[in-house]
Amino acid sequence: MSFKAVLSRYQENPPKCLRSTEEWGSKGLYWYRAPYSSMSNRKEHVRITTKSQPGFLERLSETSGGMFVGLMTFLLSFYLIFTNEGRTVKMATLLAEGLSLVVTPDSIHSVAPENEGRLVHIPGALRTSKLLSDPNYGVHLPAVKLRRHVEMYQWVETEESREYTEDGQVKTEKRYSYTDTEWRSEIVSSRNFDREIGHKNPSAMAVDSFTATAPFVQIGRFFLSAGLIDKVDNFKPLSLSKLEDPHVDIIRRGDYFYHSENPKYPEVGDLRVSFSYAGLSGDDPDLGPAHVVTVIARQRGDQLVPYSTKSGDTLLLLHHGDISAEEVFRREQRSNSMKTWGLRAAGWVAMFVGLNLMTRILYTLVDWFPIFRDLVNIGLKAFAFCVATSLTLLTVAAGWLFYRPLWALVISCLALVPVIVARTRVPAKKLE
């Protein structure tokens, strides 16, 4: 028999000694690692775990644990919804007070004594006292912030999983692939890979990312406080086309500096560095005009600092562009409204999930009867939907009770709609 025929037979029916099997406890858990596929250049393998189907008591025990998690989620949803309504009311009151008090100085190039301690509206171009730079790469520019972004070429593990039942056992097949290498700004720990051998990533980067911030930023004669400087976050990529390679070991390609022997064919561990900036200070022939912002803050001498309202909250706003005070507060109201509805939706989802987990035990009790199981599942979902909707509306109404009683009454009435609809359908079914 020829060598090719022997090899073909060996591949079709490999010896049992190559099938690594280990028994895990009394549940019959084991794993099987398939040979590497020659089609994937030995960068892919499969792991299969097997366990017996859980019995009734085991599933009932798991459901009981889920009920506790569901109860915690259910209670957390009330806290989330109620505190969100309080935050909404407080923010609306804060913005209404600010709009009634704000004033716009005649000029931003002089400090008006009559506006001392008042809430002022200051639009204008940003100006800094010195250039921000990264001498390691020869980058220098006038801006409020300069960010260096570092990425490393690393192995990335891809996992695909599927679960199926075979011979009365539940099997989970996981396919691990290492054919992808990507630029990542964070270290991908190869220690967590299913197979680290041959796919090891460095544990640290030789160059770190960082953000440099100008210590002094002005609009006209006014200096921005640290809180306002933090709000300048309109980062734009910095073109490196006019810069030279800063070092013989660093190569510039496009808008990246590469720590690599060949940027076209990088190796694991190679680095690439890019830059971005926010709040351009002064007009630049390459980058464009100075960045313009609008600030709402308290005037304290030539400083723009947080404004304390009657409710004890602070007001400190910065928006990009030259806009009126009315438009600033209009945008803040829209942002407050969007955040409110987002948190309301999150609270409703948490309540719905919590109710589902708490009532899951009823589904488990009839799991052995397919017809009843499907009916109970539909009924439990409908119950959770109606109850979550009603309780969410009642919680929202409670949050508005002392501020807008009429709105609270209307919302409370809406909370009864799901219950009324459910009750009116019961007699209809009985008549059928």
Write up this protein.
The structure is a single chain. With 432 residues, the chain is α+β, with helices and mostly antiparallel strands. 37% of the residues lie in helices and 27% in strands. The longest helix has 46 residues. Strands 1, 2, 6, 7, 8, 11, 12, 13 and 14 form a 9-stranded antiparallel β-sheet that branches. A 5-stranded mixed barrel has the order 3-9-10-16-15. It has a two-stranded antiparallel sheet with strand order 4-5. The relative contact order is 0.14. Helix 6 packs antiparallel against helix 8. A hairpin with a 2-residue loop joins strand 6 and strand 7. It starts with a helix and ends with a helix. The protein folds into 2 domains: 129 residues, no CATH class; 194 residues, no CATH class.
